[in-house]
Amino acid sequence: MSRSVLVTGGNRGIGLAIARAFADAGDKVAFTYRSGEPPTELLDLGCLAVKCDITDPEQVEQAYKEIEEKQGAVEVLVANAGVTRDQLLLRMSEEDFTSVVETNLTGTFRVVKRASKGMLRARKGRVVLISSVVGLMGSAGQANYAASKAGLVGFARSLSRELGSRNITVNVVAPGFVDTDMTRVLSDEQRAGIVANVPLGRYAQPEEIAASVRFLASEDAAYITGAVVPVDGGLGMGH
């Protein structure tokens, strides 16, 4: 059954892999991007590209109106859009902190709140939030990012209690280090140091994150809500 799916931040990395996975499965997929040009590989799959900065409430509203007009109310929401502005605490500015929280946490609040309207009317829905292993175990120089990603866990679990009676599930996927453009800028020494702490001894592929997201959005996961699913090669086990 083809569903209306929205993936925020779907233009690269993990988000692109998630959008592609849903499109390959036959779903109608819309994805947001903030700047640049949308990837042709998603456009070729028939995905709907919607330019939207999730820190702007008006842009979020317009994005939903366009999606609803072209592919129907959102039935599956994957809140993936996020940013980093790494800095040690004593050097971290107010803007470094608030801009990351505004995108990663408050922006997610906006897109989930708007999607929930249609889901409540339909009495069904799937929401998957993309957090991070950093939000569970912390990381020096990433207090802002870790706080925003940890906040998603409390947000999801509160919503799972609030929306569960309407057959709406809300879950979290917490990726570890993933082989994307963001991590490829690291030096070979930095990459080796990270992998040394991962029990499986490698980075994740974006498609492995996408597979877990698709599972949580499937009928097979109908009785799973409020869960945090780590896809981190064992890096954050125990958290």
From TrEMBL:
UniProt-listed InterPro entries: 3oxo_ACP_reduc (IPR011284), KR_dom (IPR057326), NAD(P)-bd_dom_sf (IPR036291), Sc_DH/Rdtase_CS (IPR020904), SDR (IPR050259), SDR_fam (IPR002347)
Pfam family, one: adh_short_C2
Residues the entry annotates as binding NADP(+): G9, G10, N11, R12, N80, Y145, A146, A147, S148, K149
Keywords associated with the record: Fatty acid biosynthesis, Fatty acid metabolism, Lipid biosynthesis, Lipid metabolism, NADP, Oxidoreductase
GO biological process: fatty acid biosynthetic process
Pathway stated in the Swiss-Prot or TrEMBL entry: Lipid metabolism; fatty acid biosynthesis
UniProt EC number: 1.1.1.100
First-level EC class: oxidoreductase
Residue ranges occupied by any Ketoreductase domain in the UniProt entry: 3-181
Catalytic residue positions: Y145
Lipid metabolism listed as a keyword: yes
Reaction equation(s) it catalyzes: a (3R)-hydroxyacyl-[ACP] + NADP(+) = a 3-oxoacyl-[ACP] + NADPH + H(+)
GO function term, MF aspect, one: 3-oxoacyl-[acyl-carrier-protein] reductase (NADPH) activity
Family to which this protein belongs: Belongs to the short-chain dehydrogenases/reductases (SDR) family.
Protein function: Catalyzes the NADPH-dependent reduction of beta-ketoacyl-ACP substrates to beta-hydroxyacyl-ACP products, the first reductive step in the elongation cycle of fatty acid biosynthesis.
Quaternary structure and partners: Homotetramer.
PANTHER family attached to this UniProt entry: 3-OXOACYL-(ACYL-CARRIER-PROTEIN) REDUCTASE, 3-OXOACYL-[ACYL-CARRIER-PROTEIN] REDUCTASE FABG
Protein name: 3-oxoacyl-[acyl-carrier-protein] reductase
Lineage of the organism: Bacteria, Bacillati, Actinomycetota, Actinomycetes, Kitasatosporales
Gene: fabG
